[in-house]
Design a protein that fits this description.
single chain; Amino acid/polyamine transporter I; two-stranded antiparallel sheet; CstA; transmembrane helix; CstA_N; cell membrane; transmembrane
């Protein structure tokens, strides 16, 4: 039962205050009291000592990284700086957001409880949901971006990944998740249409759909570059598909609910796939079947993307989520432990020559703004806004859990990015540049890579052919030259660190392919989920004219919309695979810019929502406005560079007209005619998309600013939240319940057990 709410209004006008919700007195309490929360936040001497120690360790780590650094810096300081900053950000900054911005009320039922249907709306244990959410948001971005950005030195990237996530990325994920939940699980496009009006909302929906194409295409391109000409990798990753299907059938029919059991089985099968991959790659038939070129692998992923997106979610996507979450978090924690144990010395400078002149061989552009759009997902990701307003808000049990899942899930992704950065800078700099320079620069040969890298004039770098061939042989690959995309570099770095901790040089190849498998699980999960979310968005958009498309159970609509979205990102994927300048090297800046523009759109929508909530929220708008303003400046500046820069290595159109002139004059110094045609086509696509993306994002941001100013002047605005309903269940807010929460759980267990029985029946 609910009492009349002072915040629920039928029309525009100022709103403020929280609804008064009266729960069923016959049930145990559905929420902890305000006194309990105040008592939990009181300072005691043990708390003071613990948090002082964390702050001191973090300060020492940052001092060692940023100030007291010699020719080398120990990698353990990256781990300590990251973990201490995350703990402080979660304990203090996220609670400020919870107290003054979101203001959750566990007496209020979530959409999962109100609309529970056993399909899309299902109250889900917070720990399971954390795993699902993390698996969906953590794709290739935190693996690839930091590896590419390592060419600029370790310090700028480290600062942005750690500080940026606390002040920007986790703020976006948490607030989008919370406000989508309060609106019945609406997507960011639907919220934009409601909050910003027809023009701003339409621009946000179109931008979201187009940006999704770029995001999924680049995710797939990373897999292609990791598996190209690698029979071991192709076999191992291909085996994850039948393994995931087996897990889905096992959970659905053989042993329902046995998540831990099936995860152990899946992990054992994965290890067998990795070990078996080495044996298969050593056979003639294995080479014949699984030694595939990158174009063939790309077409395979396109076909897979369509099938995975139309299959029932329980058959492939869900079991892959279960398995990949254990793998992702387990591997990152294992790598962090190995770094502390091995303590590798980092010889990469804090800021490299390419960070100073902006003309690096991996990607070109000045440190500001290109460092930020290159790192992308590790600190701030618009893709997360699609997940946080997609499946996750429909599964949350209690409102207070959004901080743990939204803010905490993004902190874990940032930690993945830091580990990727450390892995990339732990290997020899010469090998790093040989692996990440495009084929156009190295010729794809050992000799060409050696000549190119040594011509860069880097201090302390003297690459030899033996270094490249020996490293390739050690990891069981034919070549590691121009393996762009970040995944092979991260795999080599992880193998380099792990073999020192466990197994020695003899296990170098195992650890390398273990990392490739780990990364492919990361990325294919995001390709699956991204295609499915894109299909939902397109169905909803077409449904405005043809309502039948909004019925997600209508198979023709599912197939048509999936085919359209797969064709879109598949076309961009093929362009990237066949790009003579290196698909990742030229397409990843567009991916990063598009992803950050989507984050700016999400933050703009959140800013408008917060302003509409009333006068008491206005003074806290800076928490949203600060990352929005920074992201807007970064992405618009980066877009202008890519659109208007006269430097061909930076500007898409400058490079486009350079190759057009070469083609028209018959100049073959830049490549054969087919190479010229490919570059001309790709740069035209990239330049056009850049113009469209930044224009749509600016429209959305202007609309959000207008709505925000209007709400501030009026002291609030229209409340578009779902009507409040009293909750009839309880669940703890964080990963570990406190004593009071455990006591309440015991009181609720028999009630919820009866509910589960009724639901099963």
């Amino acid at each position: 039962m609910t009492a009349p709410s002072s915040r629920r209004r039928d029309g525009a006008g100022p709103v403020d205050g929280d609804p008064v919700i009266v729960t069923d007195p016959k049930l145990p309490p559905v929420a902890l009291t305000d006194d309990h929360h105040e008592k939990a936040n009181r300072w005691t001497w043990p708390k003071i000592l613990i948090w002082s120690a964390i702050a001191l360790l973090g300060a020492v780590a940052w001092t060692m990284l940023a100030i007291v650094r010699g020719e080398t810096v120990n990698a353990i300081w990256f781990v300590f700086a990251a973990v201490c900053t995350y703990l402080i950000g979660y304990r203090f900054y996220s609670k400020v957001i919870e107290k003054y911005i979101t203001r959750p009320d566990d007496r209020r039922a979530t959409p999962a409880e109100v609309k529970q249907d056993g399909k899309d709306y299902v109250p889900t244990d917070r720990r399971v949901l954390y795993g699902h959410h993390f698996a969906a948001i953590a794709g290739a971005g935190p693996l690839v971006g930091p590896v590419l950005a390592a060419q600029m030195g370790y310090l700028p990237g480290t600062i942005w990944i750690i500080v940026g996530v606390v002040l920007a990325g986790a703020v976006q994920d948490y607030t989008v998740l919370f406000f989508s939940m309060r609106r019945g699980g609406r997507t960011i496009g639907q919220m934009a249409r409601q909050e910003l009006g027809r023009i701003g909302g339409t621009a946000a929906i179109i931008a979201s759909l187009l940006i999704m194409l770029i995001i999924v295409a680049i995710l797939a391109l990373v897999v292609v570059n990791a598996l190209g000409e690698s029979p071991w990798g192709v076999f191992s990753v291909a085996m994850t598909i039948p393994i995931a299907i087996f897990m889905g059938i096992y959970l659905r029919f053989l042993r329902p609910g046995k998540v831990t059991e099936v995860s152990i089985i899946g992990f054992v099968l994965l290890m067998a796939a990795i070990i078996g991959g080495g044996w298969v790659a050593g056979t003639d038939w294995g080479q014949a079947i699984f030694h595939l070129d990158r174009t063939t692998i790309a077409w395979g992923i396109i076909i897979y993307g369509f099938i995975a997106a139309v299959l029932p979610v329980w058959l492939l996507l869900a079991p892959r989520d279960y398995l990949s979450t254990f793998m992702k978090i387990g591997v990152i924690v294992m790598l962090a432990g190995a770094i502390i144990l091995v303590r590798p010395e980092i010889t990469v400078p804090a800021v490299s020559i390419f960070g100073e002149n902006g003309m690096g061989p991996v990607f070109a552009g000045p440190l500001f703004p290109f460092l930020f759009v290159t790192i992308a997902c590790g600190a701030l990701s618009g893709f997360h806004a699609l997940i946080a307003s997609g499946t996750t808000p429909k599964l949350i049990e209690k409102e207070r859990q959004t901080r743990f899942i939204g803010y905490g899930g993004m902190l874990m992704e940032s930690f993945v990015a830091i580990m990727a950065l450390v892995a990339a800078i732990s290997i020899d700099q010469g090998i790093y540049f040989a692996m990440n320079a495009p084929t156009a620069a190295t010729g794809g040969t050992v000799e060409g890579a050696v000549a190119f890298v040594n011509s860069l004039g880097l201090t302390g770098v003297n690459l030899t052919p033996e270094m490249l061939t020996g490293t390739a042989q050690a990891v069981g690959e034919e070549s590691i030259v121009s393996r762009t995309g970040g995944a092979p570099t991260l795999a080599l770095g992880l193998a380099h660190i792990m073999q020192q901790a466990l197994g020695g040089q003899a296990l170098m190849a195992f650890w390398y392919h273990f990392a490739i498998m780990f990364e492919a699980l990361f990325i294919l999960t995001a390709v699956d989920a991204g295609t499915r979310v894109a299909r939902f968005m397109l169905q909803d958009s077409i449904g405005a004219w043809f309502p039948k498309f909004r019925d997600v159970s209508w198979r023709p609509g599912v197939w048509i919309c999936t085919a359209i979205m797969v064709a879109g990102w598949g076309a961009i994927l093929i362009l990237g695979v066949t790009d003579p300048l290196g698909g990742i090297n030229t397409f990843f800046p567009l991916f990063g810019i598009a992803n950050q523009l989507l984050a700016a759109i999400a933050l703009a929508v959140v800013m408008a929502i917060v302003a509409k909530r009333g006068k008491s929220y206005i003074k806290w708008l800076w928490i949203i406005g600060l990352p929005l303003a920074f992201t807007a400046v970064v992405t618009i500046t980066a877009s202008l560079y890519k659109i208007a820069s006269p430097v061909p290595a930076i500007g898409y159109w400058a490079n486009h007209f350079r190759y057009v002139e070469a083609r028209d004059s018959g100049d073959t110094s830049l490549g054969a005619p087919e190479v010229l045609d490919a570059v001309i086509r790709n740069t035209a696509v990239q330049g056009t998309l850049s113009i469209i993306f930044v224009t749509l994002a600016i429209i959305v941001m202007i609309a959000a600013v207008v709505v925000t100013i209007t709400a501030i002047r009026n002291g609030g605005g229209e409340n578009t939240e779902e009507p409040p309903v009293a909750s009839r269940r309880f669940a703890p807010a964080g990963f570990l319940p406190d004593a009071t929460e455990r006591e309440l759980e015991k009181q609720w267990e028999p009630i919820l057990a009866d509910e589960r029985k009724a639901s099963t029946h």
